[in-house]
Amino acid sequence: MDQKLPYTFQEDAYWAAEPEEITQFANLIVTCAENHLSPLAAAQKITDTLATESWSNKAVIDANNEDRPYRTNFGLVAVLVGSCLSSFPPHSVVHVRLFETTKCFLKVEKREVPNWFLDRDGKPRSENFGAVDMRATIPLWESLEPLSFSSSCEWLADVGFPWTGVEKSGSQQQQRWRNLSYFCARLSVEGIEHMGWKSALQRLLPKYGMLDEKTVGWSGYLAGQVSAAAQWFVPDGHGAWVWRACCFGQRYKERARLGSDGDQDLGNELVRHALAEAQINENDWNSGSSDDDELRILVKSGDCLWNLDNWKVWKAAFKEITEQVDDVRVHEVVRSEAIKALKAMEESETL
């Protein structure tokens, strides 16, 4: 299950751009993935190409006096990075190179692009945009926000739905979903962008479509999701990140339930431990000595994926797969990953 898979750029990004545009940016990404360009050089080349195309598109729109935003390909770049990484297993050096390329966008020589929210007269194109940056040009990159991995990669997540092939043991679809999940988990863990929704973690929850065990082929679909969800726990630091997120989430969940910060009669030792850890980390955050501020903001903003109820569901799913020793729908690699994920979860609970 760890071989390189064929590239699927045109299939994955057909909705985002014309075929020739997809090919142009895909080739730049591949040159970095296959080590023909350094991450910094690839990031600079992609940036220069984005800027050149943006100005070219603006010239065409202005010349035709069209009233529409200037087209950019930021989302295309994001989906192509995700598509490329879905072809390689989590431990591949390609993941290292393309993650470094993503970070290098913030290090390249700045390029100005036209403000796509403003018309040729420098006025907002629509009142529906809300607050609009009124600068005529915007430098790339002030942040990685224009890439918008969460929305760009939402289309790639379709491979995780039932009966897309993700339920077939060792299939390319199952491998892609696992590889993509590692990419999404690392984006979250490294604070680049939160990718919990539309992830395998969400898919394992009955509320969001996890199949009933009476469904024919259920164990295969469970295995496909477990293989992907394990990438949020097995790699170094991932399990601890999810645990801290669930601790913060549980704290805010209990606050909402009680409507105050008063004393709570908690009979569950795991819950008590999680709330205590959340309190310690929050105190550290308030004193400016913690790296958990992003997690705190994430769960406080209403992202209810992170709590101990869901932590227990994920743990039960991993345990279920470890027990499917004679099930031909469960690849041995998936069982191995489930065992590692369980160990990572148990270690995180004792931090």
Number of helices: 14
The biggest beta sheet is recorded as: 2 strands, antiparallel
Provide the β-strand percentage band.
Answer: under 5%
- Unreliable spans: 285-289
User: What general outline do the C-alpha atoms trace?
Assistant: globular
The strands making up the biggest β-sheet line up spatially as: 1-2
| Fraction of residues in helix | 40-55%
The helix/strand order is HHHHHEEHHHHHHHHH
DSSP summary, beta strand count = 2
Distance between the termini: 32 Å
Domain unit count: 2
- Structural class call reads mainly alpha
Which whole number gives the mean pLDDT?
88
Q: Looking at the chains present, what oligomeric state does this protein adopt?
A: single chain
Task: Please give the radius of gyration in angstroms.
Answer: 22 Å
Overview of the structural elements:
This protein is mainly alpha-helical and 351 residues long. The protein has two domains: 9-150, no CATH class; 161-349, no CATH class. It is 53% helix and 2% strand. It is built from 14 helices and two strands; from the N terminus they run αααααββααααααααα. The protein has helices at residues 9-13, 19-33, 39-63, 74-85, 93-104, 149-152, 172-189, 200-203, 218-229, 238-258, 269-286, 293-300, 308-322, 332-349; strands spanning 111-114, 137-140. It has a two-stranded antiparallel ribbon. Mean pLDDT is 88; it is low at 285-289.
